[in-house]
Structure prediction request, 721 residues.
Amino acid sequence: MNNYMPYLDENLSFEERAKDLVSRMTLEEKVFQTLYTAPAIERLNVKAYNWWNEALHGVARAGVATVFPQAIGLAATFDEDFLEEVADTISTEGRAKFNVQQKYNDTDIYKGLTFWSPNVNIFRDPRWGRGHETFGEDPYLSSRLGARFVMGMQGHDEKYMKVAACAKHFAVHSGPEDLRHSFNAVVSKKDLYETYLPAFKACVTEAKVEAVMGAYNRTNDEPCCGSKLLLEDILRGEWGFKGHVTSDCWAIKDFHEHHMVTKTPVESVALAMNHGCDLNCGNMFGNLLYAVRDGIVEEKTLDQAVTRLVTTRMKLGLFDSPEKVPFNEIGYDQVDKKEHKELNLKAAKKTVVLLKNENNLLPLNKNKLKTVGIIGPNADSRKALIGNYEGTASEYVTILEGVREYLGDDVRVFYSEGCHLFHEKLSGLSERNDRLAEVKAVADASDVIIACFGLDSGLEGEEGDEGNEFASGDKPNLKLPGIQEEIIKELQNLGKPVVLVLLSGSAISIPWADEHIPAIVHGWYPGAQGGRAIAQVLFGEFSPEGKLPVTFYRTTEELPDFTDYSMENRTYRYMKNDALYPFGYGLSYTEFKFTNAKVSSNEITVGTPIVCSVDVENIGEYIGAETVQVYIKVNVNGAPNVQLKGLKKVTLKPGEKTNIEIKLDNRAFGLYNEDGKLVLNQTDYKVYIGCSGPDSRSIKLTGKIPYCADLKFNQESVILD
Prediction:
């Protein structure tokens, strides 16, 4: 019995086993377990482990994997069930790759089971370069999609996690990228709790996310990776988070080098560790040796951090008999398999948003076409398919390739790059606009023009990413860069029907195109199968069903200052002007009719949900999907315009009809006050049920007025939390 090691006893809880293992480590061993490059401890049979892995829209940076549409595109599906299916597929491939990497003793970076995804920051400003990593501008949508993504990643096994997900970047983080190492995001309690925290809270309390990553910046003067308010009071205190917290990469050295809240590396690691940051992406936590020696970090605090980290590894089955862990059976044949490619193609089709379709120009009928012209810098661009934090696909299908494949030999396809994505010419010695003659020639020869413009991840992304051309990854404005709009105007002037296909990870201001181009679709960064998907959408094999997870503004000038973190005049919830294309908007090839909309009561009572119901019928000619959206307006000064509080995706065949029910609990009607408390106010409410928001611009674009019900809460106001 003297050889009994409780940490190897699989009948004990993971926490008990982790505590026992940590108790056997020396101070030096414990300190080095808090670095993302955790070394082996051979005498305890602890293998080396690298904590840093990525899976934003597929397993990233470690070879071949299914490259799904970028996160912002997945958000456009407005389909939480589908998000979980995608995440489940990603985690299957993550396990499959891990299993073979372990077989061949590869413990390098990007080879673990701790994936630093999803990014559930709120996309509050369309100039932010990393916005395409998120699920958009709305706290409710981000909460639903983020939580379900986490569930899909971590799985539903009673004992083991499939992989560990990580909600990042906690919290109040959305640019500017070039200031992130020194910036202080100042935010009211109301905005903090109403806008910036809900998606994190859903990931923690509902989805039981295993890890949370702190942000680079400060929030209300505290660096996020060492914030008492964020990490102690809210995350562990209010929400009861039991997992581990990791710093963003090299964020802790910012404490003394850029934020200037500490004077030395030892002070910085003490601030982080004492407030609940357990893992350091970087090398600063080596200084914990000095911090413990000097008495500014108690060893029991270090023990607690390492116990959390070991517990995560145990939940992943890394200390148990291999045959006991069901996910060890996932073989390499699961990576990039046929079914995953098919799911990826489905995802890419579901992300496409139809913004305009004058006189039903779309879908195109290939039987009525002899020639098609494909023009633009994103027509044959792989970079415009994938976004950032991407894996390596075994096959990339650009729009040009997808259309050619779809049309086969039946229709002649002409192609011109048209212009550079952001420079004024393509060839170094040429004059400006050096493809204009070719553009005109292609247009002349074509029955219809598919114009492929927008951005790629070289123009919007993370600070320091290779290839970002402007503003450290942020966009300087919302315009199409370079001479793209000039080429689009030339195409329209040539008199041929033009379909504008935009690929970008964020809102673009295109008021001229909206006025003059008959058909416009937005494809985001649609993943490795993107060109195939867009071709199938354009030619009617699939009816668009995507909805905008962000507002498309008319101008850059109407935006508040980029560094202003107040939500005033930001996003659909608080903006004052009409949008060009509103949040929640997206057209279809088919027609949906909403009837018999009603609410279960016009009186809100404590503890009783309001049930919204509506019949949805496909009265058009195509099979298609519609998203039922429920918005709430609270009649209180300073309240948002409206807020999304319910959604449900439904797919119907022509002539098919179904009833949809969406429950709204008391919290859906609550508003956060200036103290950050959720209050059910004694006032009037409006509940809207429709296919889009109830704003005048959405009504004009869709031609549909959402159902509106008036509700009251007649009791005294109640604090819900």
Notes: The domain at 14-322 is CATH 3.20.20.300 (TIM Barrel). The longest helix spans residues 80-103. The chain has three domains: 14-322, 338-544, 592-719. The mean pLDDT is 97.
